[in-house]
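Posting this for the archive.
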Amino acid sequence: QVQLVESGGGLVQPGGSLRLSCAASGSIFSIYTMAWYRQAPGKQRELVARISSGGSTIYAGSVKGRFTISRDNAKNTVYLQMNSLKPEDTAVYYCTNDNTGSWGQGTQVTVSS
């Protein structure tokens, strides 16, 4: 079982940037595929980005070119760098471990003027 704790959310103006972090427990973090999902109020959950153990990434079309998922295996941490933020990016962002099925508690991102 891997525990995940997201942080870094907050309020940002449109066009601004934010970096989310997901700290994971476990001794085999490096082999896991990790992902970020988000859920806006009244909306379905959607995959934002995913990163494999080998570093391959996939992004939702809506965030491609603006968001970057990365990982630091030495720190057991996954990041989501979010640039050029738009109001439609407002959501609770969740970190997931695709191999264990673990989810973090989520962190709120609000993009508003």
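The mean pLDDT is 95. DSSP finds no helices and ten strands in the chain.
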